[in-house]
Design a protein that fits this description.
The complex is a heterodimer.
Chain A (H helix, E strand, L loop, with lengths): L15 H25 L10 H10 L1 H35 L1 H16 L2 H11 L2 H26 L3 H10 L7 H47 L7 H10 L3 H30 L12
Helix pairs in contact in A: 2-10, 3-4, 3-6, 3-8, 3-9, 4-6, 5-6, 5-8, 6-8, 8-9, 8-10, 9-10
Chain B lengths: L6 E11 L5 E11 L3 E5 L6 H9 L6 E5 L12 E4 L11 H11 L4 H14 L15 H13 L5 E5 L7 H18 L2 E6 L2 H7 L2 E5 L6 E6 L8 H4 L2 H17 L6
Classes of the chains: A mainly alpha, B alpha/beta.
């Protein structure tokens, strides 16, 4: 039952520094190959711009691109926030009442499995554009939060539930007392037990929320107004301004990576004491 | 407050049939006297754990009754400490918070519970580990935390469901000794479920041998031995004799080929 002995550093996992340095080295190498091949083959920038040109475009177009970045970031963050609020609230409701779960869960699934790109045009007809974009970000980010939180809320040690029944349940019966004891279990037991699964859902939802925002912007972009990064991509495509397209794409990728790292850091911080996923490998 | 002649708690002709039609216990009676340590010994699936859960009020009997003859209270859960087969600790809470849990559920704040938590932990020798997390502890230490948690409410009746079954023998012997010491210090009543003949004899004032499913009591063996038991007792001729008696009773309870 004791913990397995820690492995010697030589045969163990790479140290923290390597985990940061190695990907950076690979990216640097890839960018170098890209740059050199574009120059050697003299590929025109409207086919494939060199990384240096993309970088210069980001700097030159920064006023325009940063404004778009801010719009996309706001949509993503707001969509994620609403997805977390809605997903967690619904998961809690489901865990308190089977009837509600059975009635509503199929709708949640249906919403998830219908591709958001297919819903976006409809949403754009029914709602003002900003709301429609937000709704798309929300729809795709919502489900991983809901399903993961539900899984987490259900994965409580049965022994602990029995202990709660022994020590916690009020002696009187009736639906009010039952509800009170369920809420107690929810707060003391299911909430912390669900945290790892919820955070896993959050890591997925962060990326999906960005995808939802981009998809909706693209659908809206061709319809007219819009100023997010995805709109810039569509616009650059029409104008054959490929360097700017790449610049916007780079910013989108960086945003996604940044958001994911943020979610991962939050997860590590909240779970560091007790969950295996947050274990620091010993030296 | 209780009449010493009356049992603390009793199962009277209890039958338990599960929803899937399985009969776990059939006409099982057990009287547990105040201050005694009863071990329930029997093959796997003979309803030992079900008997404990009935005593704890975690499940209701299909027939028969559970009574507390010396007490007028209808709710006895605050008088019961339960230790499961697994430590069942909350992995996200440190040792002190795990021990606080039963008190917390009864509305005791952590500050009010502080002394009680420290006392419980020192009784199991873990005072210095109050701020450790369960995953940092060994299996034996986790089980000690589980026992400390069960002691936090100062129970009159301690119910233990094969608590040391998953531990190595050295750890198990130490915890057996600790349990006997705790019983002397606290004077609580213990019902201990095990499938080890040697453990059942070492701990018990009385061994109740149960038959294979549906479980019922087939032998009731009083262990005439000093309350203070140690290494000498474990290696004594008397202990070996008692173990042989209990083994014979158990062999009689399990039909050939049933295991």
């Amino acid at each position: 039952m004791a913990r397995p002995p820690s492995q010697p550093a030589a045969s163990g996992r790479p140290s923290g520094l390597l985990r940061i340095v190695l990907p950076l080295v690979v990216i640097a190498a890839a960018v170098t190959v890209w740059e050199v091949s574009v120059r050697l083959a003299s590929i025109p920038p409207y086919i494939l711009p060199a990384p240096s040109l993309v970088a210069r475009t980001i700097v030159a177009d920064w006023p325009l691109l940063s404004a778009s970045l801010l719009v996309t970031l706001r949509t993503t963050a707001l969509g994620l926030l609403l997805a977390v609020a809605g997903g967690v609230a619904l998961a809690v409701l489901f865990s308190l009442s089977r009837i509600v779960e059975y009635s509503l869960y199929p709708f949640a699934v249906a919403m998830q499995v219908t591709p958001v790109i297919a819903i976006a045009p409809l949403l754009l007809i029914y709602m003002p554009q900003e709301t429609a974009v937000l709704a798309c970000a929300w729809i795709v980010a919502f489900f991983p939060i809901l399903s993961n939180t539900m899984l987490g809320l259900q994965s409580v040690d049965r022994g602990l539930l029995e202990l709660f029944a022994l020590y916690g349940a009020p002696p009187e019966t009736g639906w009010a007392a039952r509800l009170r004891s369920r809420i107690k279990i929810l707060w003391y037991l299911r909430r912390p037990a669900a945290l790892p699964a919820f955070l896993a859902g959050l890591r997925i939802a962060v990326g999906l929320s960005l995808i939802g925002a981009v998809v909706a912007e693209m659908a809206a972009g061709s319809a007219g107004a819009g100023s997010g990064l995805a709109f810039r991509i569509v616009e650059s495509q029409y104008r054959l301004n490929i360097p700017r397209l790449f610049a916007a794409l780079t910013l989108l990728a960086a945003t996604g990576i940044g958001l994911f790292l943020l979610a991962a850091a939050l997860s590590r911080r909240l779970l560091r004491h007790w969950h295996d996923s947050a274990l620091v490998s010993e030296p | 407050m209780a009449d010493p002649a009356l049992p603390l708690v009793a199962l009277n002709g209890v039958t338990k049939v599960f929803a899937n039609g399985l009969t776990a216990l059939a006409d099982f009676s057990l009287q547990v006297l105040e201050g005694e340590c009863v071990t329930l010994l029997g093959p796997s699936g003979c309803g030992k754990s079900t008997a404990l859960r009935l005593l704890a009020g975690l499940t209701a009997p299909t027939q028969g009754s559970v009574t507390w003859p010396g007490s007028a209270l209808s709710d006895h859960r605050h008088e019961i400490g339960f230790v499961f087969q697994d430590p069942t600790l909350m992995p996200w809470a440190d040792v002190a918070d795990n021990v606080w849990m039963p008190l917390r559920l009864r509305g005791v704040s952590k500050r009010e519970a502080g002394d009680r938590i420290t006392e419980s932990l020192s009784r199991v020798g873990l005072k210095d580990f109050a701020h450790a997390y369960p995953r940092e502890l060994s299996g034996g230490m986790r089980m000690r935390v589980s026992i400390a948690r069960a002691l936090a409410l100062k129970p009159r009746l301690l119910l233990m469901d094969e608590p040391f079954g998953a531990l190595d023998e050295i750890t198990r012997f130490r915890l057996n000794d600790d349990l006997l010491r705790l019983k002397r210090e606290l004077g609580c009543t213990i019902v201990f479920v095990t499938h080890s003949v040697f453990e059942s004899v070492y701990l018990a004032d009385r061994v109740v041998v149960m038959s294979a499913r549906p479980g019922t009591a087939v032998a009731n063996i009083r262990i005439e031995a000093p309350a203070e038991r140690d290494m000498d007792f474990r290696t004594s001729h008397r202990y070996a004799e008692l173990c042989r008696d209990v083994s014979h009773a158990l062999a009689g309870a399990v039909p050939d080929g049933a295991l």
